């Protein structure tokens, strides 16, 4: 009985971890897209200035 509960708990933990990792991949992809849009928008602004599009 305890072994069955441990296996069930392990399966639940791995499912949760898999969901979290997949969610983090989507977040990383979103951040990459936002960065690329900012990079492209900065490089085609035509002002010729060396300003950055981000405020770090």
UniProtKB/TrEMBL annotation:
<feature type="transmembrane region" description="Helical">
    <location>
        <begin position="30"/>
        <end position="48"/>
    </location>
</feature>
<keyword id="KW-0812">Transmembrane</keyword>
<keyword id="KW-0472">Membrane</keyword>
<keyword id="KW-1133">Transmembrane helix</keyword>
<protein>
    <recommendedName>
        <fullName>Hydrophobic protein</fullName>
    </recommendedName>
</protein>
